[in-house]
Amino acid sequence: MADASDIDAEAVADSQVLGVIVIARNGDRVEYYQDPKTYEGGITETTALGEVESHQLGAVLRSEYLSPTSPSYIDGMRSDLVDNSEIKVRVKNGGEGTVIFDSAIALLQGLYPPNPNNKIVLANETVVTAPLNGYQYVPVETVEPSNDRSLESWTDCPAFNKHVREFYASEEFKQKEKDAQPFFRSVKDFVFGRPTTLENALYDFMNSQLIHNKTYAYRLPPTLLETARGLADFHENGVFSDKQSGGIGNIAGRTMLHTVLRALERVAFNDDPLQFMLIETGYQPFISLFHELEIVKENPELQAIPNFASAFAIELRRGSPPDVRDFLRFRFKNGTGGSFKTIYVYGRHADIPLTEFIYKSKGGVISSNKQWAEVCGRSSFQGLDLGFTDKISDAATYHPYYSAVLAFLSFLALFAIRGVFVRLVKAVGQKVQNLRGKKVRLEGEEILNVDAASAQVLPDEKITRL
User: Fold this and answer.
1) What's the mean pLDDT in 210-235?
2) What is the pLDDT of residue 371?
3) How far is Cα 333 from Cα 116, in angstroms, rounded to an integer?
4) Membrane-crossing residues (predicted)?
5) Hey, CA dihedral for 287, 288, 293, 297, is it positive or negative?
6) Based on CB atoms within 10 Å of each CB, which residue in 20, 141, 220, 350 is the most buried?
7) Chain centroid offset of residue 381 CA
């Protein structure tokens, strides 16, 4: 008898792609320094190489998901001219500054290249083509950590800072640093006074110099960079992971999952046009997600920093009859080289049913700024504490259950208001009927022959009928 995994694999062999959520890392940039204790970032800038890398990733995504001849083509999604109702873009706008935003724009240029058909005909029959031979403009939502922690949850988080300190104090870290002493002695002449310790990972500086500084590239022994990369992978994997699912070390992935689940919810809803979601971010959520979803158990090589312009694609697929449930397929592309590789979550060797994925992942999801503050051990969050930016708008507008609840509550509110209004009108009407044309004494001083207008405004407690 076939097990459940075999049945699921058969069900999605010829599955239909309904939509995809792509988490993409930024392209190349100059050196980026992060405080090793707080992970507050310094200043960095995009490079032309980084823009090219992201543009290439966009072109790959176009060939994978927007080409009707591709086996992963998103069914029914427009590929010639962008339909802004079908695509949503969220970009982290915290650490690394404009680099991630620039990478997102370059990626979108590859995903939807200029098209001369991007034009309009005016009333006077003048034909106007968009600039740059039909450049296509895709709206981008920047996510600011000052009011939305969903894409940068590891900074200003006391519990995460404690996790980092504990990792540095662990026997594993101390032993790795001890073993790396020969490297630290050899690398002193190539880091120009920077601290040669494991806590202060040197790879980012060395790699940036190797790419952009010809003199440095000619002098640097290749083995030093390889060792630096290995130490940096150990360092960042230890910081952005946790031994427990739902642990504080996975916070970068746990907040990212909120955005992913919301997007899947929209794509799965037939009346919602969304089919492609791009989340442009740094390297941190990749490591955390790979741990939180238990991907690293069978792919230990992913316990490392993903290369520039990497992409993690989550495809929502509808199974073939008789099993027409929605399934998820996970694919990863590490940088500009190679192609997408299918990877599996939670130890399954097949695409996972959407309902099963939601059930297994929801325990670790952080879905609001308030919950983030609680997990981080903060008494409050200085900002809009109404949940992550995409939570309220997406849930209220697109989720059928939330919409039904809101409609029902609106009906109750209107019904209650109507009842109050009717009772008020009846009371005023009765008052007018009782007083109109009658003589009354107002506070013992004045006698009035009350008309209809006066009857409505005379205070009851101050009048005496005669």
Assistant:
1) 97
2) 97
3) 31
4) 401-421
5) positive
6) 20
7) 19
CA Rg value for the chain: 30
For 35-48, how does the pLDDT look when each residue is reduced to its tens digit (9 = 90+)?
Answer: 999 999 999 999 99
Q: Which residues pair with 449 in a beta bridge?
A: 439
End-to-end CA distance of the chain: 96
* Separation CA 369–CA 387 (nearest Å): 5
Alpha carbon 329 to its chain's center: 18
Asked whether the bond before 182 is cis by omega within 30 degrees of 0, the reply is: no
For the cut 60, the answer to whether the pLDDT of residue 453 exceeds it is no
Q: Which residue type, as a one-letter code, is found at position 377?
A: G
Mean pLDDT of 68-79: 95
Query: Distance (Å, rounded) from C-alpha 226 to C-alpha 215?
Result: 19
CA-to-CA distance for 409 and 392, rounded, in angstroms? 16
Domain residue limits, the chain? 4-154+240-389, 172-238, 402-465
pLDDT at site 14: 64
Task: Scan for tokens 């995903």, then name that residue.
Answer: 111
Q: Residue 383: exposed, middle, or buried by beta-carbon count in 10 A (0-12, 13-18, 19+)? A: middle
The Cβ-side half-sphere exposure at 110, using a 13 Å CA radius, reads 22
Closest CA to 136 of 80, 98, 52, 187: 80
Residue 385's pLDDT is what? 45
